[in-house]
Design goal:
Creatine Amidinohydrolase, alpha+beta, Creatine Amidinohydrolase, Chain A, domain 1, six-stranded mixed sheet, five-stranded mixed sheet
Length: about 400
Amino acid sequence: MNLDAIQSALKERKFSAWLFYDHHHRDPIAYRVLGLRPNMMVTRRWFYLIPTEGEPQKLVHRIEAGHLDDLPGNKRSYSSWQELQRYLQEIVTPYRNLAMQYSPQNAIPYVGLVDAGTVELVRSFGVNVVSSGDLVSQFEAVLNDEQIASHFLARDAVDRITAEAFKTIGERVRNGGTHEYEMAQWILEAFRRENLISENSPIVAANSHSGDPHFEPRPDRSQPLKEGDFVLLDIWAKTKAPGACYYDITWTGFIGQNPGERQREVFEIVRDARKLGCETVRKAFADSRKIAGWEVDKAVREFIQNKGFGDQFVHRTGHNISNAIHGNGANIDNFETKDEREILPNTCFSIEPGIYLPEFGVRSEVNVLTRPGKAEVTGREQEEIVLI
């Protein structure tokens, strides 16, 4: 735990303190930010308060009294619920605005981990509980140099695998055949060769399956791939280094030489929407203007709505990317939630608009990495439908 960095962040955001709480490992964020062992036995509630200035405060149960001993601060121990409430009140009442892993109306489920009853208890002491969302982004999503380097290593491998996957689909279709599940397994084997790891299977989806945003290629639902098919590949992976950052892309292709006019039309709208999203972020960072995730989604979504496909764009524009494929930083979202968290420098996220029709769907996904004063797309950007 970096106490100085946490207290500096609290001052910057004008919070009085950050209160961490857990019971039965409900809040993994607390363990990562505080540097606690993730596998310790937690059968009783503990609290840890970091004020803007001064000593942190601990509150632990007497039968698990050593749980926070690796952290600095003063310790109180309780046994009864009356003691817990009395000591907790003493700890929190000096602080007006207390950040917790709380999200108003659970708008950001990644952050809303503290149960409603605990929030009610803390508020009953006359304390204003506010969301720790931006703090979580700063300490969970901001990447260090090693993580950024790992993202580019994953990029190089995944871009190669994606290009080879399209080539292999074409070769197999013309020499005996293949199907969606088989190609998903081919990609997983390529990950193993490249020393990459991934959460879940990549998506290989043809025709109507590509119109299902999170289609899962399984043996019992796998379609053969054939000439004239529209194919979507969604591929994400990271290196095996501790804390490595994912790379996550989606490309689309056509098995043959002549995609349909409708396919070209929808692809070009999605491609241009993707470019608009990236440019919106680039311009904000170049102008040193703070920008939240919802603002980028709004620009992209309005573009697609104006093209007549608003009802077919059924998910947010993008998600934070870190050592988890869906990380805890700002999402590019004004649809599923209104993500008002600031997009911070040295964070990574996807821009991936999509239009999903009954007969096919198009998603075009790139990753954007922000730095102080600039933002960049980290990999190749698809400009045309791949002819397989």
